[in-house]
What does this fold into?
Amino acid sequence: MAVLEVRNLTIRFGGLVAVNNVTLHVDEGKIVGLIGPNGAGKTTIFNLVTGVYNPTRGEIHYRGRSLVGMKPHQVASLGVVRTFQNIRLFKNLTVYENVRTAAHMGAKYSLLDGLFHTPRYHMYESEISEWSENLLRLLKLDARRADIASSLPYGVQRRLEIARALALRPSLLLLDEPAAGMNPQECRELISFIREIRDMFGLTIFLIEHHMDVAMSVSERMYVLNFGELLAEGTPSEIQNDRRVIEAYLGEEERDAQG
Amino acid sequence: MDGFRVKFIRGLGVLGLSASVAWVLASAIRARLPNYITGLLTVVAINSVTALGWNLVSGFTGQFNLGHAGFMAAGGYTSAILMIRLKWPFPVSFICGAAFAGFLGFLVGFPSLRLVGDYLAIVTLGFQYIILAVLNNTTPLTGGGLGLAGVPFRTHLPTATLTVVVTLWLLSNLVRSKQGRCFVAVKEDEIAAQSVGINTTYYKVLAFIISSMLAGLAGSLLGHFMMYLHPDIFNYLKTIESVSMVILGGLGSLTGSIVGALCITLVPEVFRNLATFVAGFGLMRASDFLRRGWMVFYALLFVVMMLARPRGLMGGRELTWEGVRSFAARLVTLRGVRGWPSSKSET
Amino acid sequence: MNEFVQQVLNGLAIGSVYALVAVGYTLVFGVLRFINFAHGSVLTFAAYVSLFSVLVFKVPFPFAFGASLVLSGLFSIMIERQAYRPLRARGAPNLNLLITSIGVSLLVENAIIVFYSADFFVFPRVLPSGTVSLLGLATAPPIDLLLTAVAVFLMSALYMFVNFSKMGVAIQALAHDRDAAALMGININLTIAYTFFIAGVMASSAGVLIGIKFNVNPYLGGLFGVKSFAAAVVGGIGSIPGSYFGGYLIGLLETMGAGYVSSNYKDAIAFVLLVLILLFKPSGLLGRGIQEKV
It folds into this structure.
């Protein structure tokens, strides 16, 4: 069953068509990759799905519900949660505070409960404390719980951003270039980490990746985007042998070599 | 559930106990010490409420509010007019003043807080000028430029202190709840906050309304203390006064706001008394300089604090006994000047 | 009819002041993305420099005017270097920059009061007295004509500078995308210094002339500064023509409002307009919206 369904998605910025007529779907429990050269419109698709941009045309359905016109916080509260290409943590807060802040959704108490610290407040607060502690333990962040987010090494910041996203108990997780800036060893760890959290939390994962090998080994299904249009889709091995994909990537390397 | 109920009752107990202690202390001060001291402490208490309000919206939520004095005026005038013209009892007028200020906060905050960037600063500053223009031009109701005399005296030191204690208790509860964490998330990174499902506009407006209500409370306390109101009391510099208290005590530190209010209210008095003292020896020039020196000192405070201790005297922490002890130790070893900016830090 | 022309003339003169100051807010906002509250104090500074030059050092007015423009431009650079740059280098949040700029403006105001005087000074007579008749339609004091002429001259000069000089283009590039500008080899700090200098010169020309038109006092930059900021936002912050447009619009509305409706709310007009603009067209009348990159 498709968790996320995108049909004929198009967005124009002035004269530039950043995403053109893209149709794709992400099935329940799968890890789906979205790859493509720089500027192909991958992050734009994430921004469209999460309500940062409104599409010029097209539909986005999450579990049968249209996401078009929703604000980012509404999309997130439905269970579609993302990370960012250039990590956006609450920089001056500790690891624990980052996760606990994101766990606010589980705390169903009112402003008055918050002002007077009613029994209801204490009940939900102890619940989200427990949940946050659990998350930190599961993601092996508990040793760093009191560290300030901006002081963490890059790889740990990435892990914290994912932990923060998981604090919302999402069902669809969108990861924007999780392997950016990682060395091959870290990339391998990341691949097993992504599979682990998928199984542990029963997630569906849709990820953008620039590293071809990471994308190939972690994804169960892939979409290739080029110049805002869908170029190919299929299993990693199908994509690997697709002539158009090879051309798009070789073309890019040639351009890189010249530039 | 029982454990949670115990915690709740314990929280109320803390409030009850500290409120009683504050009341007894304040009553004792009022009975024993000269009026000058009592009055000064009352002003400290009023300023604490104002500073706490400003801190919530700017220190915690990161939205720069430059119209705080406008909301004080709204609260002060509402409460005074209700008592004078409609003969309403003080507690009711007091609450109505705060409610009206909060309502204005909603009217101003809702449209402007949807915008990104520093627009709020300028809209709220504009709002303050608009409020002053309205107050100056509605003479039959507010006394206009002549001021509003005959405001009943109701702000005794115990009343003012009690307001501070209750405000502090409520705010410290609030900042330790999900609402408080969402405020801070908005300050830290709005886009990240939205990505974890935080309705940033809602929390910004909420912080703004609570802050305006506190400004309204403080304005009404001020009116019933001075027994007189005038639009010029609530000018731009009144807002800046709250800003100075908060940056001195630390953006995002509640007890810091009270420490800040204490310093900013008392230090000029020290300067003033010193000037009078020096004048007693015939040193007129020195006396004159001391009296005015505070103004330069005060202005420098903003720049120096931001450069050297942007998180306030207490480093953004709350005031605790442990903190007081380590601060005292630091004062002794004079390590406080360590953060002074050097030309090396420029790139 | 004559009455109307007269009001328009008055509005243009005061609008010139707002426009000259507003453009400085826009320029600085463009490169640093923050509201420089100390911008108004450069205006006050300029008025005092020219007052001193004429009164104490007996410098002929044109030279005094020129000197105060240059000195205020340098003063503006100094504020940036001493107060803002250390904060920028540290990556301090915008709120801290705003508070610092408020501190700087208070410092200038209070330093004048403490070390000099809180009095209001009438500028010595440097322009011919009386009024000039314009085609028999209306009359204007020479200072109003000078204000408008200086404004038009400086605006044209700024237009040439921004569009046809290397540094002007660098300022535009910086406003467009700071990181890309740095990668292209633009000296960021130098460009920012130039921006502050130009902003200072524009504002100080207005400062000297309103000193002559009204009087010189420590609070000169306060209300003029804030209203000019309103003008910059109304016109569209980040847009140079927008700040001129906003300046003249507020100048005209204010004089018209005072002339035909009531002068009681004169100072509130700018802010009412500001709130309305932010409600219905937050990017300003001639501005493009500023969106944060995700």
Remarks:
- Residues 66 and 240 of chain B are 8 Å apart (CA to CA).
- Residues 2-32 of chain B form the longest helix (31 residues).
